[in-house]
Design goal:
- The protein is of the alpha+beta class.
- Helices cover 23% and strands 32% of the residues.
- The protein is built from three helices and five strands; from the N terminus they run H-E-E-E-H-E-E-H.
- Strands 3-2-1-4-5 form a five-stranded antiparallel beta sheet.
- The longest helix is centred in the first third of the chain and has 14 residues.
- It is globular.
Length: 107
């Protein structure tokens, strides 16, 4: 059978993220698209570049700590947490200048 179950695929992807030291904590640079702020405080959006996009969620406990208002088209630096894989975001900061890159070294 060439079809995987959802569980099999997510277990495999979790294994890959957990076993590859380069994927344990992922740092991305991209642009916000499809942004939606939910009434619960969660933020739903995509991070995209010229070739691809990743759907993501930022839970309210992290979203409440944002120091800027994310909007469609904002260029950002993003950190995906260890053990969660792509999709769950812990930090997003606007990609403004060298200060943003400096801050990322200490978060």
């Amino acid at each position: 059978n060439k079809y995987l179950s959802v569980s099999a695929l997510t277990k495999y992807l979790k294994y890959k993220f957990d076993s590859d030291e380069h994927l344990r904590m992922v740092f991305l640079k991209g642009e916000i698209s499809n942004f939606k702020a939910h009434s619960t405080g969660h933020l739903y959006f995509s991070i995209k570049d010229e070739g691809s996009k990743i759907n993501a969620i930022m839970f309210n406990r992290n979203a409440s700590n944002l120091k800027f208002n994310p909007v469609e088209g904002t260029k950002v630096l993003v950190i995906f947490p260890e053990g969660k894989g792509i999709g769950y975001i812990i930090r997003v900061i606007p990609e403004l200048d060298e200060i943003s890159r400096y801050i990322l070294r200490y978060v």
